[in-house]
Design a protein that fits this description.
The chain is of the alpha+beta class and 74 residues long. It has one domain. 16% of the residues lie in helices and 58% in strands. It contains one helix and three strands; from the N terminus they run ββαβ. It has a three-stranded antiparallel beta sheet with strand order 2-1-3, with helices on one face.
């Protein structure tokens, strides 16, 4: 039995550093932007993230693409 995956949803997550805790460890929070076009290329998502960086209050430390896929039998 062969399985096939179908991309059903994409999101961009930007992680940013809001401070340091009492032990010196970074405190990182995230902002999730859902409903990204399924056909978006990684370069396009990164370009949007770069544009949004200047609007963020805290420094962005990481940009992540989350893809949700449905797995079906072929």
């Amino acid at each position: 039995m062969a399985a096939k995956s179908i991309l059903v949803q994409s999101a961009m997550v930007m992680k940013y550093k809001v401070g340091v805790d009492g032990k010196g460890k970074d405190i990182v929070k995230s902002e999730r932007f859902s409903k990204i076009k399924l056909t978006s290329k990684n370069e396009e998502i990164l370009a949007v993230a770069e544009a949004l960086k200047s609007l963020m209050k805290y420094p962005v430390v990481q940009t992540i693409r989350e893809d949700e896929q449905r797995i079906i039998n072929e």
